[in-house]
Design goal:
This protein has 11 helices and no strands. It has 204 residues and is mainly alpha-helical. The N and C termini lie far apart (70 Å).
């Protein structure tokens, strides 16, 4: 007789995170309370605080849960053996498409991310640091290979981030929601060509 193995139950913190995520999707972040999440989990609100020290920490965890796979993907792109400019393009589109897709499929979670970004909350700053590190890795590699002539690494990174801000800012992604994806990506490709040309010519 075959042994039946029951699937493992999710840990308590993951269960609370799932409940909070679903609450945000249904009602938005402002209506979430720790007491409601505790009741849904069948525990006291004091027990929730064992896992998340505050409502803010719980909401940050909701945001972090969907950002984590994106950030892991950015590291993979930055570490890939492709030419620097190819990686720069892949990185930009990975971020832009992830934001655009989240806005389309999970708008209240995306709103939560936008609010954290507007407030420069710790979760948003950490995400921006992940993006900056990936861009810096690519710029450094491009300079080392001779593809880019960079005199000031910090200035070059700021140039790229400033130039591509429209496609990397969650607020502008939301503002551009009515613009067809193909049109925006065409604009981004043209702008990236100019960015790559400036980097290759040592204008940074």
């Amino acid at each position: 007789m075959a042994l039946r193995i029951s699937p493992a139950k999710p840990s308590t913190d993951l269960r609370l995170l799932d409940l909070a995520s679903e609450h945000v999707r249904r009602h938005g972040a402002t209506r979430l309370t720790v007491t409601e999440i505790a009741e849904a989990a069948g525990m006291s609100h004091a027990n929730v605080y064992r896992y998340f020290r505050s409502k803010t920490a719980l909401l940050d965890a909701v945001t972090a849960a969907w950002l984590a796979p994106l950030e892991a993907g950015l590291r993979i792109i930055a570490d890939a053996p492709d030419p620097a400019h190819d990686k720069l393009e892949r990185l930009l589109f990975a971020i832009h498409r992830a934001y655009r897709d989240k806005l389309a499929t999970d708008p209240k979670i995306f709103d939560l991310f936008c609010a954290a970004t507007d407030a420069q909350a710790e979760i948003a700053r950490r995400h921006q640091q992940h993006i900056a590190r990936a861009f810096n890795r690519i710029l450094d590699e491009g300079h080392g290979s001779g593809a880019y002539l960079i005199n000031d690494q910090a200035a070059a990174a700021h140039f790229v981030l400033d130039a591509m801000h429209r496609f990397l800012s969650p607020a502008t992604v939301r503002a551009d929601v009515e613009i067809p994806r193909e049109e925006l990506e065409s604009r981004a490709t043209k702008l990236l060509w100019l960015v790559g040309r400036a980097l290759a010519q040592g204008e940074m």
